[in-house]
Inverse folding.
């Protein structure tokens, strides 16, 4: 399993914002987190839409966390940013053409592993990632 660039960029952006007490410009985040501005703009739009980040225009504007870091779970960010969480084709909603279904046990094993993965992420907050 590999997370997309969007998830990685979103998590790095949130960590960067969590370390600041003031709004940060897109250019500053892009440079500090080594994310392209175009990717960062898309990520920030999604984070703003989910009320995880606020964006302020103007001279003293920029982006900052919309919530306390302890209230943002890593799992919720990953779920927000990933287009599909299906590890294999048979885990897709009702579209599987796998000839081994319905008797194959692999789907259940992978589903359980994924649930354990997300349980760990859900129990990890942005604040946990910001601790020294």
């Amino acid at each position: 399993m590999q997370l997309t660039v969007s998830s990685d960029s979103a998590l790095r952006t949130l960590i960067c914002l969590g370390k600041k007490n003031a709004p940060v410009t897109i250019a500053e985040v892009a440079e500090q987190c080594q994310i392209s501005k175009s990717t960062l703009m898309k990520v920030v739009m999604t984070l703003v839409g989910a009320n995880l980040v606020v964006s302020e225009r103007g001279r003293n504007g920029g982006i900052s966390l919309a919530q306390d870091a302890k209230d943002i779970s890593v799992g919720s960010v990953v779920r927000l940013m990933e287009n599909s969480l299906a590890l294999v084709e048979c885990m897709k909603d009702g579209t599987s053409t796998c000839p081994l279904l319905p008797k194959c046990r692999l789907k259940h094993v992978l589903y359980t592993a994924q649930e354990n993965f997300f349980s760990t992420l859900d129990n990890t907050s942005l604040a946990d990632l910001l601790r020294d």
